Amino acid sequence: MFNVLFIFCLLLLAESSCIPSVHAQKMQAPVIPELQLNFNTYTKNDGLPSNNVYGFFQDSKHFIWIRTGNGLSRYDGIEFQNFFFTSKDSNSIAGNDVRSMCELPGDLIFIGTTNGLCIYNNRLNKFENRRIADKTIKPGSNVVISSLSVDRKKNLWINFNGELDVYDSLFRFKFRFTDKEQGKMLKGIITSQPTFSFDNKEGMWLVNDNFGLVRIDAATARVTCYKNSTDTAYRNEFNIGYFLDKSKSILWYSPWGMGLYRYDL
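Given the sequence above, the corresponding structure tokens read:
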């Protein structure tokens, strides 16, 4: 009887040692899987004109353009082709500090710099700055082209020197919006983003450093300036960025130091 009881106790002891206690289970740290992201890094050593990249633009031929503070680069998936300002060449890029870009029909790439505007013919692979008649924004004008945008009617909007000029799809001057009755309130506007955003209701959104958040109705030319809003977030004069989600008609807006705001259009 003693031997049977002794063996039974041993079996109970062995079984209990295989079952972790509740306390032991709580003390176990969770295993978090690690995700390894393998990046390909490109620097000046790989052909970039500068390691300080401002932003990107993809043209209709699917080339990736990289804007930097020391030149412009076009990437074809294999190598970089760089463009630098040359004072002796009137058909080079206008300046090395590239702030904005957009494309008009006819493979014309418009490039805004801190030294004026320039035009690159993407089909002929050459600059065609002779197309720019306005001396105010020609290469070498020392004018900052803050932003360039093309609306749904293929009109080109240019922000410089606190003005908003509008050109047609053939780059013929149409009017200065900031001289019109509806747009006078935007005199002095300096956009803080390289391009504008367009919602699903013919609205064009501008984030800028001195008027806060602005919407221009493309159909009526009506201007809504959220600088006059009771919500201080929409009249913050130092904007950091925004994102327009067209699929859900939501505007995400991030005034500097004030978190993230959502606006349902």
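Residues 2-18 form the longest helix (17 residues). Try to locate this feature in the token string yourself.
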